[in-house]
Protein 1
Amino acid sequence: MTLHNRTAIVTGANQGLGFAIAEAYLEAGLSGLAICARDKAKLNEAADALRAKTKPGQRVFAMTCDVAKTEQVDALVAATLQEFGRLDVLVNNAGVYGPLGPIESIDWKEWADAIAINLTGLVYVCRAVVPAMKAAGYGKIVNLSGGGATNPLPRISAYAASKAGVVRFTETLALELQDHKIDVNAVAPGALDTRLTDQLLAAGPEAVGEAFYQRMKSMQEGGKMTPLNKGAALCVWLASGDSDGLTGKLISAPWDPWPGFEGHRDALENSDVYTLRRVMPKDRGQDWGG
């Protein structure tokens, strides 16, 4: 899984999973790495840490960017292309939980802002990089999703709705771009021990619900959270030539056997495996409803 001679943008890369992905990309030989985040101080710290890990021929470029602001996204993409002369990979990692609590009591602006970062911001970053990838006749887009895409998350509705939207957009964009050899996939990294989990636990059971709170608390205290390197490794594979042609899928880093996908490529590429679909009565052994 080499990324030699490839360049990438990783959003939200100043900490957590985004930083782990950026680090793994450099370890895999990525030539040009552009990282962005909203917090300038933390971004600069992350950039320095990543530059300390570079080898000859590797460069790291950092630029503050709020993905919810189109003019900042345009500036990031333009600066990356000017810096490296090409763009092969985009990882949309930037994201927030948004307000936690019942829909009728949370702050509406915070809810809408979360959608702007997690969904519409992600869509716009994709939109901004597509022309360069089309011109090159090749590209890789990796969108970070999560458990909110496949399961209801009461009291965390902005996150759940946005992540479900990310997956359907991923599937749609994959079809739009498949003739241009641009692969678009979504990654579910698992339950991670990051600032988002800390935020959730700090909000307490009254905000996120007793059952969910206790489950996440137990996982964190018991050391059962998914290691960041699992999601990072999957993102390396999806950015490499080893995954060429696999597109429009939602892949779970901790649960799906993606290292062995090569032996099942025909089945994967010509089916709705690892996609979001409506469940019909017959899918559950019922003989009514079509």
Note: Residues 108-136 form the longest helix (29 residues).
Protein 2
Amino acid sequence: MNSHKNAIVYRLEKSGMDEVEAVMLEDDVVVFVVSGSMNILYNGVKTVISQQNILLLNKGLHRIEFCDCQTVVFRLPISDIEQIVCYLSTNYSVSLISGHNCEYCRFRNFFSASSTAVLAEFFSSVNRLLSIPDFGEQAQKLKLVELIYLILSGSNECLKSRLIRVIASHNNCFTQTIYNNIFKATQTAEMAQRCNLSVTNFRRKFSNQFNTSPCKWNISQRLERAQALLLISDYNISEIAAICAYTNLSHFSKAFKSHFCATPTQFRKLHRKK
């Protein structure tokens, strides 16, 4: 699996019955078995992952036996996962809270389950895309966003809770606090306090993380959210301003025009015209 470490998604094929391999994973991965099967050996117990099953492997060392199988593998790189989760929680209200807790989920470095029809169809489409040369990095990242959304919004609580644990282990508390408060119109001093930092240290850390000032970044994020709502929702302009933490409609319109060279009303008419 390490031979594809620069790809976000790849196909892994093994012919025949291989000896048990020691596989070191540098990232957590999600694996879908397209055909054949693979065996995971853990604490002296062999778990068979058969066709159409989905598997989440935590980063680290695994002992795997491949049995004439073809799989589709998604890496879960830390940097991409953090951005994707923030995007989904902000734009699609995806919850990262799970009260589910069982022994099967908690005490192993992998988790497997039968795939739902939706996930099976998703992986089938990805498997076909992997045969197309134009299926590049950006398209792969979009598919990773879709995969995470399908798992977090799905009905398999074990799979969902395991992915949430992976996300929680990756999340930078500082960054997550910032994203959680984009639309709450908090001042820099308030944000610094929430991050348990002095204002000076907060500004320095923020600049290093986002390459801009807290104020500029906050305005940009709120206006980009407003842009998305103008395109995909039927909220009126006042409602969108309120959702994006603007209490003054005139101030919102001026800020939006400065950022996008059109007022919110002009932007919506131009881009939603048939």
Note: DSSP finds twelve helices and seven strands in the chain.
